[in-house]
Amino acid sequence: MRTLRDGMRHQGLLQTAWRTLNVLYRMMLELDPSKRKARYGDLDYDLEHSVNTTRSNVALKTQLTAALAGHLYFATEPYLFEEIMRALPADLRDFTFVDLGSGKGRVLLMASDCPFRRIVGVEFLRELHESAAENIARYSNERQQCRNIESVCMDVRDFEFPPGPLVIYMFNALPEPVFAHVLDNLRRSVQANPRPLFICYRYLEFEDLLKECGWLTKADGTAHWAVYGNRVIWFDPKSHAASVIHLDSLKKA
Ligand SMILES: C[S@@+](CC[C@H](N)C(=O)[O-])C[C@H]1O[C@@H](n2cnc3c(N)ncnc32)[C@H](O)[C@@H]1O
Which among 29, 105, 110, 168 could disulfide-bond with 132, CB atoms 3.0 to 4.6 Å apart, if both were Cys? Predict the structure, then answer.
């Protein structure tokens, strides 16, 4: 309800009704048996890691709620996630990774193969959040480098960003007004407590909102994803000199 109300305030009744009908139409198309793969998503990741991250067994009510809130539930493709991670700094030890709209947690598991300090998923649908918690407990991979992982069940608009450097991930999670709200929360958090921030945006539907943020710069991207970062002011504790850290200096060689 809150998403629909915000949608109407941000983009008007007609646009919100159109978006909602569009999503419901796509759900109906997927009832066609030939769309089985699209409906169930790719199962290879789940079979390889003995987890449950696709849409195959999500209750219809949960699927409908996700669709009405913005989009159908899908999990990120592993090869694209690896591409995106390669666009980030080599040293991630100080960074907290946050997946906004984390679903059943596949991205949290994949991120845990990187050396993040901490990993948090934010998901407002209880059924998906509970699956994510089970997946986190079940996941085991010799490549895993971070075991400090949690899924929290709440709306991303109410999430308070943790201190320290951040990598924020979003895949097709948020409709435009919610995305705008979250970007504003992020800007305020980084203004109040300046620190490095990267935003990984998979599926570029509302990339214009990122482009319009004067405090962000595009660091990398393809036709499927983009990584933006903030300009970080660094105070040298010895000389007390202030300098701007350029994103390129943080990127992998
Ligand atoms: C397309 S799925 C992506 C799942 C996961 N991030 C991945 O890439 O595998 C988007 C998820 O965002 C969630 N979502 C949408 N709006 C949300 C909101 N306002 N607060 C929290 N979660 C939200 C949906 O329930 C859905 O699980």
Answer: 105
pLDDT digits (tens, 9 = 90+) for 25-56: 777 777 777 666 666 667 899 999 999 999 88
How far away, in angstroms, is 123 Cα from ligand 1 center? 6
Residue 135 CB–ligand 1 contact under 6 Å: no
201 lines ligand 1 (CB under 6 A): no
* Domains defined for the chain, CATH in brackets: 1-253 (3.40.50.150)
Q: Is 159 helix (H, G, I), strand (E, B) or coil?
A: coil
List the beta bridge partners of residue 220.
Answer: 227
With a 6 Å cutoff on the Cβ, whether 66 touches ligand 1 is yes
* Burial class (CB within 10 angstroms; exposed 0-12, middle 13-18, buried 19+) of 237: exposed
**Which residues, listed in sequence order, are joined to residue 225 by a DSSP beta bridge?**
202
